Amino acid sequence: MSNFIYLTATPEALIASMLPPLEFGAYLSTGTKKRNKGQAIFFEVDLDKIEKLIDIESLNRRCVPKADGRPKSSVYLSVYKVLELIPLSALKSLYLTTDTGHTLELKKTQYNTSREVLGKLHLFQELCPVTPLVASELTPSAFVKRLTDGSIPIVLPKLFFVELILGELASNPLTGSVEQLPYSNIGHLRDCLEILKGEYEKHMKTVQRVYSGSLLYRTIESGFYVGAKDEVLFYPYPSLTELENLNYEFFRSI
Amino acid sequence: MVSLPGASPFEVAAIWTVLVIAFFGLAYAMFLRRQVMACDKGTEKMQDVWDGIRLGANAYLKRQLRTIVPLIFVFTVILFLSVYVVPPTAESKLRFVGYSDESLKLIIGFGRAVAFIMGAVFSLLVGQFGMRMAVQANVRVASASRRSFAEALKIAYRAGTVTGMLTDGLGLLGGTLIFIIFGVASPDTLLGFGFGGTLLALFMRVGGGIYTKAADVGADLVGKVEAGLPEDDERNAAVIADLVGDNVGDCAGMAADIFESYEVTIVSTLILGVVLFTQTHELSWIIFPLLVRGIGVLSSIVGTYLVKGNKNDKSNNALKAINKGFYSSAAISITAFGILSYFYLNDWRSFLSVVVGILLAIVLDEITKHFTDGHYHPVKDIAKNSKTGSATLILKGLSYGFEIAVWQTLVIAITIFASVMIYYGQPIVYVLYGVAMTGIGMLTLTGNNVAMDAFGPIADNANGIGELSHLDKDARKIMDSLDATGNTTKAITKGVAIGSAVIAAVALFGSFITDVSKVQIQMGFDKSAQLIETGIRISVPMVFIGLLIGGTIPFLFSSLTINAVTRAAAQIVEEVRRQFRIPGIIERTVKPDYQRAVDICTVSAQRELVPLALIAVLSPILIGALLGVEALGGFLAGVILSGQLLAVFMAGAGGAWDNAKKMIEDGLYGGKGSEAHHAAVVGDTVGDPLKDTAGPALNPMIKVINLVSLLAAPVIIAYQKPGQASVGMFITGAICFVIIVGAITFSKRGGFKKEVFET
Question: Cα(B117)–Cα(B193) distance, rounded to whole angstroms?
Fold first, then answer.
């Protein structure tokens, strides 16, 4: 049995496991005894590229099959400041797991900034290392750059986030239809977006300080982003039609 | 023909043809059954899951039979003896000329008792056989879904059609047989036939409704909400009970319900037809409705056989194929009715009444769709209110539920008005006959309607088997699509069932007035004291009291059935929680004990049958005995009005909440897990026992009360002369009152002693 290394987003942790990604996702969301439930979002990490960062000897000693021969589910290698230390090149696929244990794999791509549309508003759910919900008039690449390049007092070493749908609010925060939006405090969201539209110096506005720990997978706009400064990895999220064909079980459970 | 003196050769041939059509409908059902049974049952795993459903269903049916058979015996004896209290009618003496009074009593008493058994057995057969067919079909549909959409659709719909044709065939057979034997005396025995079918339908509806929702709510509350398991997860101990419940409620219950409406409309039409025959000496008043029914059976056979999926069609549009069959049947029926009216009746009034009935079915269907289908504004509006929480969602649902009751009742009022216009200037009996013919028209396509309804649980169960046996993605997609179509067809047929129940009840109400008057004439009442002359005067305090009490009965019934569901669901919740604590169940290394959840639901459902049946049977006797026959008429009016409004309200609100939740689960407002979804789940859970237990149980309840009133009215007239107190009647009323109070107490407490389930 080989070992896998995973970087989970919430809580931020580096975990070794003998379970392959789909089983690891089910384990994280529903537990060994399946008495638990909760979403999981995690990357698979290329062990070869982080060998110098972890104690391989300890890993090999601890991550071994259980006495009854079952694979070891998880060995925590590190918590806190994990994303900061892992090089982007070590990140492999991103996995999303529903609270019923169905997992979807998203493949890594290099982000193409030329496709970004300027002048639209965005809603970003930050997932790691901090987790506020932020409205911004910055494109995803500009958002990463601004928060990680040290140009403002608040600086993060790396940032992992997802863009959520805004519908008509992206261009018309005041009167745009909110028919399909699931957010609970729409009035506040409109206010935040309106402030961004009106004030030229303001590029970001916190909509919600505390992350509920549960992401509505149907409200993902473009996909997941992870990066620092000018380097951005993009994990495109399929359309619902594509998703239905790609992973029917996942589609049914969201 | 001995039973029909004066019948023309065409009329004699027509009657026998109708009988042959009834057998033909049954033969077609057996032919389809053989087709379905010849299909394969899939893998070992699929059959393993299916076996659990089959055994659960069998256990329920056996237990139900044990509860019902003694009651059938008791009522058979009562019906036989009833002729010794009230002598047979003048028509019976006409039919059996030359027989002594004692022989005549024996013939009519025996006929009424046998007709009651026949009605009960036919109703039981439709429910039980239909449910067994559905159980046999679901695994075959799941297996066929691995091959093609068209094959899966064909098996599911044809299995549903077996129940549909049983309903058609047995309903037509019973009515026609009684008519052939008893001729103009048939009203004396038809009441027994109608009562048997209706009483059994009440048992099947109440039992099925409680079972299905106890299992559904219980399984969802622990499995989905608490443990976060997906729908139909094998670790949920209530999953098999839930799947069995779909068959018990939507197949057995609904089929028996529609069967009794089908039966009762022909009973009331024939009763009114005989009255008109005695006045006009034209047999067409009786023959035409039977021929209309015969044509309906034939057109349903053609229409249902047309339902096929196109092998090249990738859209998986089952509803399109089903609608094609339905509208083909409707077109064939209307054309044939027109031809029959032209050549046989030379009178378009009956034809118009039948067409009004078909139109009524279509309009009610459209109203139901408008208020409960996700494509229209009301459900979208309810779903939208989920964004502000469960309270606003529930309030919106209540608001639309009340509104649908208004529109449906207005449409029924317009239908009755249409009958008044069609028979304008004629005595009231003609108008009532027109209403009864409207009911006949409305239920013309019963074969299609029941097939559409039974299709729902078959597709639902097939999907459950697919989930539990981990079938591949393509098969699951096909079953998801069939399941979604099944939800729509179930909702549509619910609307038809309620509408037809009301029309049947109004027709029976008409029969009540004419029958009571007939007995009053027979007993030498003054013309001024006859009900047909006085009408039912709500300005008379006793009548108004009857009206008020009648209005409360559907509320009492609903309260008790919802209470029973809540109690049984709580027991299921405890049981599933207990089993989750057993090591290995959650890890899938130990199989849950599905049988215990099945037992809890079965016992809970059967426990309520007797007290609720007693309330339905004894309440009209109580009112009639204490307040008199006119007050009993007021009581009936109250039951019909509040029962109709409440049934439509509950079905409408429940259906709308259900579909609002489905819209959100399909991705609206964030989909599953969103705040909107949580609110919608609350709405759906509240609506479940309303739309699937309490609401549907009111249909047969209204008719049981009507038929008991029809049976009891002559006794009341005989023993309670106007203006005179009767000690016997007072004692009868007091006994009924005590039994009803006991039944309510029994039902509210969940029995006089607690059921103990061994652990």
Answer: 7
Chain B CB within 8 Å of residue A32 CB: yes
Identify the residue among A39, A248, A252, A253 best suited for mutation to test binding to B, counting B beta carbons within 10 A and taking the highest. A252
Our CA angle for A47, A52, A53, nearest 5°, is 80
Question: Helix or strand or coil: residue A139?
Answer: coil
Cβ contact, residue pair A179, B676, below 8 Å:
no
- Which chain A residue is nearest to residue B583, measuring alpha carbons? A33
Contact state of B671 with A33 under an 8 Å Cβ cutoff: no
Write phi, then psi, for A161 (nearest 5 degrees): -155, 170
Q: How far apart are CA B709 and CA B87, in angstroms?
A: 17
DSSP, collapsed to helix, strand or coil, labels residue B44 as: helix
The pLDDT confidence band at residue A107, using thresholds 50, 70 and 90, is very high
Residue B112, token pair as written in the block: 């009424």
Q: What is the dihedral of CA B696, B702, B704, B708, to 10 degrees?
A: 170
Tokens for B364, please give them: 């009610």
Is the pLDDT at B755 greater than 70? The verdict is no
Contact between B619 and B560 under an 8 Å Cβ cutoff? The reply is: no
d(Cα B175, Cα B186) in Å, to the nearest integer? 9
Question: Distance between CA B356 and CA B423 in Å, rounded?
Answer: 13
Q: Which of B473, B477, B586 sits opposite A35 (nearest CB)?
A: B586
B351 touches B437 (CB < 8 A): no
Q: Give yes or no for B225 touching A (CB within 8 A).
A: no
Interchain CB distance below 8 Å, A33 and B668: no
Q: Do B580 and A35 touch (CB under 8 A)?
A: yes
Rounded CA gap, A46 and A49, in Å? 6
What is the band of B2 on the pLDDT scale with cuts at 50, 70, 90?
low
- A185–B contact, CB cutoff 8 A: no
Which residue's entry shows tokens 């939800």?
A: B487
Number of residues in chain B = 759
Please identify which residue in the block is written with the tokens 């720990």. A213
**Which one of B230, B587, B669 has the shortest CB-CB distance to A182?**
B669
The predicted structure's pLDDT at residue A22: 92
3-state secondary structure B23-73: HHHHHHHHHHHHHHHCCCCCCHHHHHHHHHHHHHHHHHHHHHHHHHHHHHH
Tell me the two tokens of residue B93: 């003496």
**B386 to chain A: closest CA residue:** A182
How far apart, in whole angstroms, are the C-alpha atoms of residue B293 and residue B443?
Answer: 8
Q: H/E/C letters for each residue in B359-372?
A: HHHHHHHHHHHHHH
**What residues of chain A lie within 8 A of the CB of B675, using their CB?**
182, 184
**Which residues on neighbouring strands pair with residue A79, listed in sequence order?**
A13
Digit-coded pLDDT (tens) for B363-415: 888 888 889 888 899 999 999 999 888 999 999 999 999 999 999 999 989 98
Q: Could you tell me if A172 lies within 8 Å of chain B, comparing CB atoms?
A: no
CB < 8 Å to B580, chain A = 35
pLDDT, tens digit (0-9, with 9 covering 90-100), for B16-68: 999 999 999 999 999 999 999 999 988 888 888 888 888 888 888 888 888 88
Question: Chain B within 8 Å of A76 (Cβ-Cβ)?
Answer: no
User: Which residues have CB under 8 Å from B206's CB, separation 6+?
Assistant: B561, B605, B608, B609, B612, B613, B693, B697
Helix B446-468 to helix B44-82 angle, to the nearest 10 degrees?
Answer: 140
Cβ contact, residue pair B230, A100, below 8 Å: yes
* ipTM entry: 0.74
Decide if A61 touches B, using CB distance below 8 A.
no
At residue A31, what are phi and psi to the nearest 5 degrees? 80, 170
